[in-house]
Amino acid sequence: MTDTRCGFVALIGEPNAGKSTLLNRMVGAKVSIVTHKVQTTRARIRGVALEGDAQLVFVDTPGLFRPRRRLDRAMVAAAWGGAADADIVVLMVEAHRGVTAGVKAILESLNERTDNAKIALAINKIDKVPTEKLLALTKELNEAFDFMETFMISAEKGHGCEDLRAWLAKELPEGPWLYPEDQIADLPLRMIAAEMTREKLTLRLHQELPYQLTVETENWEERKDGSAKIDQLIYVMRDGHKGIVLGNKGETIKAVSKAAREELEEFLGRRVHLFLQVKVRPNWLEDAERYSEMGLDFKDGNA
Ligand SMILES: Nc1nc2c(ncn2[C@@H]2O[C@H](COP(=O)(O)OP(=O)(O)OP(=O)(O)O)[C@@H](O)[C@H]2O)c(=O)[nH]1
Ligand SMILES: [Mg+2]
Questions:
Q1: 30 Cβ below 6 A of ligand 1
Q2: Which residues contact 17 (CB under 8 A, 6 or more apart)?
Q3: What is the per-residue pLDDT across 103-137, written as a single tens digit (0 to 9) for each?
Q4: Which of 18, 52, 252, 263 could disulfide-pair with 155, CB 3.0 to 4.6 Å?
Q5: Tens digits of per-residue pLDDT, 22-74?
Q6: Which residues participate in GTP binding (predicted)?
């Protein structure tokens, strides 16, 4: 047997930095949902990639920000937990936003929050800025923190991503692979399906509403004809929210359901019957069961 390498690479950064986009690119499939809005990812999502003899287990994390609600605190705890468990931490910073107050706050706690991990910097969205700006930003960030390496990438367009992956593979510890060769994710299918619906809701609903709902897969039935019948519940906090999610004559939920079903069919490679139901639960944000369904630790949300 040849010497194999394997380990965890945590992707951390402010909300919207492009962590999920990078995870999906590294894995070569959409494992983690992406939207233009902040705080899309709520829990740690693993995606697996191979590079030569190395198996890279990428860990997408929720964005790091100043939490207010229980859910926010649980998300931020999950993100730092991902960094603490990693062999390599990649901090992603948006090229066009530069060293924000949020980035400064992350840099301040990065050393104490990681456990001997190698820490690299990935300046993302380089497609948005001229090269001169990148050099200045690289200098500024490396003066603020001792990064092992700096990469300039576009997670969306792919620039620099192969170099990053090759470097990560080289830096991972020697060890046996943790996953079978053909596995790319380890999120249960019912959770992936719920996330897809949440993505479509987030894209469609305005302002605060996406932050005040959660989606769960209630039932998954394999049918004899090879299709899957999937029932999902959308928890919202108020009657008014329910009306907005349904939309005029149900048009919003119909559109969401169609978009989520199509993506799910592509992901699974078979037909899906998706049924969405909206439930009003004013205090779901304080409901421990909702957190375990999301893959979060309820206790992490304690103030
Ligand atoms: N122009 C450009 N946009 C990008 C790039 N990478 C990501 N984006 C966009 O940035 C937005 C946020 O991307 P996500 O991958 O959801 O960001 P995230 O860091 O996972 O965000 P949270 O889950 O909210 O923490 C999306 O609209 C992406 O399409 C890039 O390299 N260039
Ligand atoms: Mg994300």
A1: no
A2: 63, 92, 93, 94, 124
A3: 999 999 999 999 899 999 999 999 999 999 999 99
A4: 18
A5: 999 999 999 999 999 999 999 999 999 999 999 999 999 999 999 999 999 99
A6: 13-20, 60-64, 124-127
255-272: string of b/e by CB count within 10 Å (b at 16+)?
Answer: ebbebbbebbbebeeeeb
Whether residues 140 and 202 share a domain: the answer is no
Q: Report yes or no on 67 lying in a domain.
A: yes
Question: What is the tally of structural domains in the chain?
Answer: 2
Pick the atom of ligand 1 nearest to 42's CA.
23
Same domain membership, residue 205 and residue 162: no
pTM of the predicted protein model: 0.97
243 CA → ligand 1 middle, Å: 29
Contact 9, 85 (CB under 8 A): no
Chain-centre distance of CA 137, in angstroms? 25
